[in-house]
Automatic annotation (TrEMBL):
Gene Ontology CC entries for this record: cytosol
Principal EC category: transferase
EC number: 2.7.1.49
Species assigned in the record: Dokdonella fugitiva
GO terms classed as biological process: thiamine biosynthetic process; thiamine diphosphate biosynthetic process
Protein name stated in the entry: hydroxymethylpyrimidine kinase
One term of GO molecular function: hydroxymethylpyrimidine kinase activity
């Protein structure tokens, strides 16, 4: 009997030995959406709910081999980019994806972990802007990441809109600028694309949550792999993360909570 096919997504990101973010969160998220998850690991991290102890980056030739192995065999419907760590890794990823311009790419410009540890070098920012923004179907920075990419302060919703326009001018086809770092009882996220601006608002939840950015971008990639329009994929992803946060739990000795992906499944 013929076997059924389900959509496939690829995550190119770092591992999290604590299981709450990075590759681990991405694959859990893909599974929750009924999407087959594949991966290319850019870096190994030794981390837990209290911090990052060590980072070991993958050789670029081996990273390239991982990406080509997946794209050469699977019908990948979307790619999520997370922690890239170094300019050399960013360049290797850009080189692999540039030959596939029709493949949807969700770029999460990971620079700092929730615990405050840096997950990329300073020169990585320039590489992300120059090499990967032009390949991005959607870029999903939080406020500090957008500030680093643009070299400007973002302190209001008006400034968020200006920044989103600037990121589109820098090459990204659409921007989801996450406003959680601004003060207020509600969190406002801005989606800006060819169809205009769309604001998503949700109640701010107390506590520190690990892996929210990874899971959001992975959920969007899953939606794109399923063939959903970008606006619908973003809206479904935001709802998924909010449900996963509401069901979150503390698995380690630190204060960080991780998301419950199973409870949040659509």
């Amino acid at each position: 009997m013929p076997t059924r096919r389900i959509p496939t997504a690829l995550t190119i990101a770092g591992s999290d030995s604590g299981g709450g973010a990075g590759i681990h969160a991405d694959l859990h998220t893909f599974a929750a959406f009924g999407v087959h998850g594949t991966s290319a690991i850019t870096a190994l991290t030794a981390q837990h709910t209290r911090g990052v102890e060590a980072i070991h980056t993958a050789p670029t030739a081996f990273l390239h081999a991982q990406i080509e192995a997946v794209l050469g065999d699977f019908r990948v419907g979307a790619v999520k980019l997370g922690m890239l760590a170094t300019p050399a890794i960013a360049q290797a990823v850009a080189g692999a994806l540039a030959t596939r311009p029709r493949l949807p790419v969700v770029l999460d410009p990971v620079l700092v972990a929730t615990t405050g540890a840096r997950l990329g070098t300073q020169s990585l920012v320039a590489s992300l802007r120059r090499r990967l923004l032009p390949l991005a179907t959607l870029v999903t920075p939080n406020i500090p990441e957008a500030e680093a990419l643009l070299g400007r302060r973002i302190a209001s919703r008006d400034a968020m809109l200006e920044a989103a326009h600037a990121l589109r001018e820098a090459g990204a086809r659409a921007v989801l600028l996450k406003g959680g770092h601004l003060r207020g009882a509600e969190v406002a996220d801005l989606l800006l694309g060819a169809g205009g601006e769309h604001w998503f608002q949700q109640r701010r939840r107390r506590g520190e949550f690990h892996g929210t950015g990874c899971s959001l971008s992975a959920a969007i990639a899953a939606g794109l792999a399923l063939g959903r329009p970008l606006d619908d994929a973003v809206e479904a992803a935001i709802g998924f993360v909010q449900r996963a946060i509401a069901a979150g739990y503390r698995p380690g000795r630190g204060a960080l909570q991780v998301l419950d992906f199973t409870a949040a499944a659509p």
